Amino acid sequence: MDFRSSKPRLMCIVSALLILVAAGSTQFVYSQEAQNRGRQNAAPNGGADQKSQSGDLELLPVQGNVSMLAGAGGNITVQAGRDGIVLVDTGLAGMSDKVLAAIRPLSKGQLTYIINTDHRSDHVGGNDVLARTGRPLAIDRASQASVMIIAFNTVLDRMSAPTGQVAPTPEKGWPNDTYDTPQKNVYFNGEAIQVFHQPGTTDGNSFVFFRHSDVISTGDILDPSEYPIIDLKAGGSLQAVIDGLFRLKQMAVPADHQEGGTMLIPGHGRICDVADLDVYHQMLVILRDRLQDMIKRGMTLEQVKAAKPTRDYDPIYGSTTGNWTTDMFVEAAYKSLSAKPDPAASHKAN
Predict the structure, then answer these.
(1) How far apart, in whole angstroms, are the C-alpha atoms of residue 149 and residue 128?
(2) Residue 69 backbone phi and psi in degrees, to 5
(3) Which is nearest to 106 in space by CA: 133, 78, 72?
(4) For the segment 204-242, what is each residue's pLDDT rounded down to a tens digit?
């Protein structure tokens, strides 16, 4: 064999390999830089909320018949098809007209169901306006409701002020199809939709599983943009949020290496998969264990805050300004973990 004649060919092969290696290195560096920029630019209050301030909405296909509408103050899950449209949550009241304009082209059918995951204004604010535009299924028209609004019964209690006080929300936006069982089932657009009661940030949270599309709308039990907003007065607790996340982990099935498969639409922030769910759940379990240890050692709330138990997670989930700060989360978590069990509630459960 004449090695001299093969030398040019060998040099070409070596050059090609060097180019490929250089290109791969460049791509890796770019990928790492993009991830770092994403972490640095992750806003504590979530991209969807920032978009709502500028009035922009973004409709993102998720999977199957399900999309996510971001920018209305909270994420809105949209299922659209031949039968009409289902919304999970409706965003802030001031964004209702833009939400309606965004969902109208998705189906020739009417808005038929609204499912509320809790009673906060960024979840139910658009109920009143949007409910007036739809039409229920024939079997539901006897109720004379424009749209069937599904929620756990405590959501109706808090929206309607049954104690005689002035209701915080218009009557047209109240849930008219409440449930007080572990779950409620609906079949729409050729898909089974399961609404599960899951206490978390309040005692009335729900999450919604679109079975054929393999998408779960989690509400505020999962919020990759910030620490969970625990409403102690409404029965929320850190442990309840952790329990809810664990239940989601049992239901969601990843496609490969915790990626893909079941997709999750959180109350705020980006579309998630099981890997994101695992990270968020693990973070809260670690913080719970730290706080429980501090409580057992007799540390006061002020001492716990001074110790900064969330310091390593604050760049991702924390905030020093806005409606939900890191200090507020630590205080709510501390109080929920140090609260003594209610004997009356335990007696009722038995």
Answers:
(1) 10
(2) -100, 115
(3) 78
(4) 999 999 999 999 999 999 999 999 999 999 999 999 999
